[in-house]
Amino acid sequence: PAKKKDIRDYNDADMARLLEQWEKDDDIEEGDLPEHKRPPAPIDFSKIDPGKPESILKLTKKGKTLMMFVTVSGDPTEKETEEITSLWQSSLFNANYDVQRFIVGSNRAIFMLRDGGYAWEIKDFLISQERCADVTLEGQVYPGKGAGDSEKVKNKTKPEKVKKKKEADKKSNSEKEDNRATKQREDL
Asked: Region Disordered: which residues (predicted)?
């Protein structure tokens, strides 16, 4: 049995224990639980089209938070990017899509969706915009209407990842080939 302590003498740990005891038998509704504690939504396999892998992703991302990167075409300033993406966010809000927007560069923004099941509909809207260069969703890059001709390769993988991998391979190969002290150290 715990010692009886005056409430005025409680520290943070005592208050945390008291809160845990209080909430132990408390019934919390499923929608109020944090996302990582909610049970996953059941997947209806009859709605999955085997020819479209996006349909599987739509169903598995339903009800989960999802982020997509959007690049604004041209060479906009951060303020221009803010204005353009704000217009897109307003349009999506008017169409009843809950989207939060974060500017991450002079021409890049992150659109965060509370329900990832709508991500591909939002992606279709964004790539149809004049100033949208591309949308990155689940590792796939979808070129937008504002993309240059060289960028309009459908569903290309991120070139940054490929470049980084090639650079890492070159570094490891050069280290293997030249595994001796440099000339400068030999002189010492």
From this structure: 23-47, 140-188
Burial of 172 (0-12, 13-18, 19+ CB in 10 A): exposed
- Which H/E stretch holds residue 82? helix 78-94
Is 63 exposed, middle or buried (CB count within 10 Å of its CB: 0-12, 13-18, 19+)? middle
User: What is the mean pLDDT of each successive set of 10 residues along the chain, which is 188 residues long?
Assistant: 76 88 73 69 70 68 85 91 93 92 92 87 91 90 79 49 58 54 52
Three-state DSSP class for 5?
Answer: coil
125 vs 119: CA distance, rounded Å: 10
Beta strands in 97-170 (DSSP E): 99-103, 108-113, 132-137, 140-143, 156-157
Q: What pLDDT is attached to residue 60?
A: 67
Radius of gyration of the chain (CA): 25
From CA 46, how far away is CA 5, in angstroms rounded? 59
* Structural domain spans, the chain: 53-143
CATH topology of domain 53-143: Alpha-Beta Plaits (3.30.70)
